Amino acid sequence: MFDAPARLVFSAFTRPDLLMRWYGARGWRLVECEVDLRVGGRWRFVSQGPGGERMVQSGVYREVDPPRRLVQTERFEQQSYPGQTLVRHDFTELAGRTTVTTTLRFATPEGRATALRYPMTRGVTESYTRLADLLATTSEGAS
After folding, report:
1. What's the pLDDT at 120?
2. Do 68 and 97 touch, CB atoms closer than 8 A?
3. From start to end of 1-143, where are the E strands?
4. Residue 127 to residues 65, 73, 133, 143: CA-CA distances in angstroms?
5. In this predicted structure, what is the pLDDT of residue 142?
6. What is the pTM for the complete model shown?
7. Edge-to-edge, what's the strand order for the sheet holding 85-94?
8. Averaged in consecutive runs of 10 residues, what is the pLDDT profile of the chain (143 residues)?
9. 3-state class of 42 per DSSP?
10. What's the angle, vertex CA 30, arms to CA 103 and CA 108, rounded to 5?
11. What's the half-sphere exposure (Cβ side, CA atoms, 13 Å) at 18?
């Protein structure tokens, strides 16, 4: 849950200038961020780790319903499992605070099992901590 209105949280998930400020686990940062926010539009993120390693992920927007829902495909360039993942973010605001519920649907059970072996919980937690810090200091996109 984030202490910000859904419009601002949705903006933080979709505007490159805001994504560049919070997206990524500790030590990682976005160095490229492309967003074509429309159904059928493509997105592409390039992240750089603390040792200079790079990670590229991209996909296509399937549903864009600001500030309530964002549905997109996702695939990593160096992906160790087959197929695309369908990612759905639901933004639910109550009294100025927003809960983000993210659902991942993997192409195969084996892909899901492989992804669950990665430290995703730690990475998402660190990334969302950065997002909470950003939301506490900005009102960009709230109007």
Report:
1. 82
2. no
3. 29-35, 42-48, 54-65, 69-76, 85-94, 97-105
4. 23, 20, 10, 24
5. 45
6. 0.92
7. 29-35, 42-48, 54-65, 69-76, 85-94, 97-105
8. 96 97 94 98 96 96 98 92 93 97 95 87 92 88 44
9. strand
10. 30
11. 22
